[in-house]
Design a protein that fits this description.
The structure holds 2 protein chains of 2 kinds. Chain A is an alpha/beta fold. Chain A is built from 12 helices and 10 strands. Chain A has one domain: TIM Barrel (Alpha-Beta Barrel). In chain A, 42% of the residues lie in helices and 20% in strands. Chain A starts with a strand and ends with a helix. Classes of the chains: A alpha/beta, B alpha/beta.
Chain lengths: 318, 324
């Protein structure tokens, strides 16, 4: 079965200390890039050794998924520190001060470095996914001081993002679009109503994989399947109490099934994961990938590593 | 407790560790400094913190939580039932050791009594505050590998925190702040989370404060009257005071965060005064205490001090105006 690392991998503490030094200008860029390359290379090799089909670079250079946007889109500033949904994890609110435009140079440079590294390590770079924040969540998270309309903001962000994705096409075939706010009660109704159109704007030749996070609502899950996406994430392990209802919606769908929980250190058992997969397969989805259910940043690295190995073992039927 | 001026100024709890203390901790971990020597350094650092707070003019200081690496980790290490796998990121480049609950949580020994007794002897005022992390927040900021439900886990934590608070009162604590920054993290849990945090102060007769910061305060509003504390203190500067209106139904005192602890820019005294005056258009001065948004530990010490000084000086400007 196909497996994928979705989103972030916990930034190793040692690397984090190095990032702090770099940001306070105590380390030269060349040395920093070299150290970052070492950590990225170790992660990529580890994922290859565990037979992962697709993966990101762990988002090691970014503080969170919102931080990615600051390296891709201009017209926004870092605002107040805000809780990331119901997690003890915080991000800087993007504050929209002027027209937002695609400005992906920093992101592209970093992503290109990952691709160059993969090539150097003999890793097929087609396995490496780009990643960004989706338009629905952006419209929800942003403090909008320019458009004064969430729907317009979502459309404008989508247009800019599409332009960025077009520039990314020469480096990768797949992009992860994260929508952690997709099931949130604070996502505006009028944005939800236009979400299919907002996603239509994003059409490119790249494969678009859309990952909502956290507590599923069944109505929104149906809406998720209507978005123009090549694969959608379904966090089954984090929503196990309503798994029966979720399975019923998977027929004919292309899904990335979240089977290891990145919000707890408790290890899943192989038998539990296998049962989930069997039940999902019973509903005959068109395509199924196995993945972590949300950002691995939420758990310590040692546990994240164990969970990825477990995922790989189940996929390999070990 | 001695009488306090109108608009009492206080801290939330943590204060930057002096550089030399961080070095001592590092050397202790490396086995080059004994535990006794490190204990002496902790004591010295508490004296330094009180000196800073006194110079800034803070009415109700704390010991800066010098002995605590992190607010959940500290207590999890002293209670039975916890295990640590490693650090996790909380924001930016900041990490904490998030514990996992792997067995029944049980009280083993006093956790803060020695810390408080030393602080009491070193403090420049009897109006000293001692802080303790609340049961709901410890539950929410831990992984649950043992209990059937998070509620069960939080219940056991409430018992242990209540026990500790009673021990603090026995040794003379008069102002106790329970830190519950996670209280409003999950809309479906807020109602019982408030019951749990109330259990932490059950059977006490001292001034109790609950600190709640960051996140969607509106989730608290439907249940705010159920809180049994004397005071809620809040992070508000970070939000430009927008959530202030949510606390109209609150019967007790309000601690107003007037200092952004995540920005190095130092607020001026005039800015603080202006902010307080804005608050006073909505709440009577006798209900208001003045504090930073949260603990100051992540700032450089010199900036933390300057921010406290501005906070106190700004408050003094308003006090003068209130006199006239």
């Amino acid at each position: 079965m196909f497996t994928e690392l979705v989103g972030s991998y916990p930034r190793p503490y040692v690397l984090n200390e190095y990032i702090k030094k770099f940001r306070s200008e105590k380390v030269e860029k060349e040395k920093f890039d070299s150290r970052m390359g070492k950590f990225k290379g170790e992660l990529l090799n580890s994922l290859i050794n565990n037979n992962f089909s697709f993966f990101t670079d762990g988002m090691l250079e970014y503080d969170d998924i919102v931080d990615v946007v600051f390296h891709m889109i201009s017209g926004i500033k870092r605002g107040e520190l805000t809780r990331f949904y119901d997690n003890n994890f915080y991000y800087r609110t993007p504050t929209v001060k002027e027209k937002i435009t695609c400005s992906p140079e920093q992101y592209l440079n970093r992503f290109k470095a990952t691709i160059d590294l993969a090539n150097k390590l003999g890793i097929n770079s087609d396995k490496i996914k780009a990643y960004t924040l989706g338009p629905l969540t952006f419209s929800q998270m942003a403090e909008d001081n320019f458009y004064n309309d969430r729907v317009e903001l979502a459309f404008e962000y989508s247009k800019s993002l599409k332009e960025c994705l077009t520039k990314l096409e020469k480096y990768t075939k797949i992009v992860e679009i994260h929508e952690p706010g997709f099931y949130s009660r604070t996502l505006q109704k009028k944005v939800i109503e236009r979400s299919v159109e907002i996603y239509d704007v994003l059409k490119t030749t790249m494969e678009r994989r859309v990952y909502p996070h956290f507590n599923i609502s069944l109505d929104r899950l149906e809406l998720l399947f209507r978005l123009d996406a090549d694969v959608v994430g379904v966090d089954i392990v984090g929503n196990i109490r309503m798994a029966g209802n979720i399975y019923n919606k998977l027929t004919g769908k292309k899904i990335s099934l979240g089977v290891v929980d990145a919000r707890t250190t408790k290890m899943e058992t192989k038998s539990k994961i296998r049962r989930i997969i069997e039940k999902a397969l019973d509903r005959k989805p068109e395509k199924i990938l196995l993945s972590n259910n949300t950002f691995l940043d939420f758990i310590p690295e040692i546990v994240a590593k164990r969970k990825l190995v477990l995922l790989s073992q189940v996929a390999m039927n070990e | 407790m001695n009488e306090l001026p109108i608009l009492p100024t206080t801290v939330i709890g943590s204060y930057p560790r002096p550089k030399w203390l961080r070095e001592m901790i590092r050397l202790n971990l490396a086995g080059r400094v004994t535990d006794d020597e490190l204990a002496e350094a902790f004591n010295d650092s508490v004296i330094s913190v009180f000196r800073d707070h006194q110079l800034a003019g803070v009415d109700v200081p704390s010991d800066g939580e010098m002995r605590r690496d992190e607010m959940t980790e500290f207590f999890a290490k002293k209670l039975k039932g916890f295990k640590f796998y490693g650090p996790v990121r909380v924001w930016g480049t900041n990490y904490y050791n998030k514990p996992s609950v792997v067995g029944k949580i049980q009280y083993e020994q006093p956790m803060l009594v020695n810390e408080f007794e030393f602080a009491k002897g070193a403090s420049y005022t009897p109006n000293l505050k001692i802080t303790i992390t609340g049961p709901y927040t410890i539950a929410d900021w831990s992984y649950n590998e043992y209990y059937r439900t998070k509620y069960d886990m939080a219940k056991d934590l409430a018992k242990t925190i209540n026990l500790e608070i009673k021990k603090l009162i026995e040794v003379g604590a008069k102002i106790i702040q329970v830190d519950e920054p996670a209280l409003h993290s999950h809309s479906e849990e807020v109602e019982w989370a408030i019951d749990i945090t109330n259990e932490a102060i059950a059977g006490t007769n001292v001034k109790t404060i609950i600190h709640i910061c960051y996140g969607d305060y509106s989730l608290l509003t439907p249940y705010i009257e159920n809180l049994k504390y004397n005071q809620i203190n809040l992070a508000l500067k970070n939000y430009n005071y927008k959530p202030l209106k949510l606390f109209k139904k609150w019967h007790g005192e309000l601690g107003i965060g007037v200092i952004d602890v995540h920005q190095r820019r130092v607020e001026s005294a005039e800015e603080v005064a202006e902010d307080i005056e804005h608050v006073l258009t909505q709440y009577p001065a006798k209900k208001i205490w003045i504090n930073p948004d949260c603990g100051l530990k992540l700032l450089p010490r010199s900036i933390a001090f300057q921010k406290l000084k501005s906070m106190v000086d700004g408050t003094k400007i308003v006090r003068e105006k209130l006199k006239s």
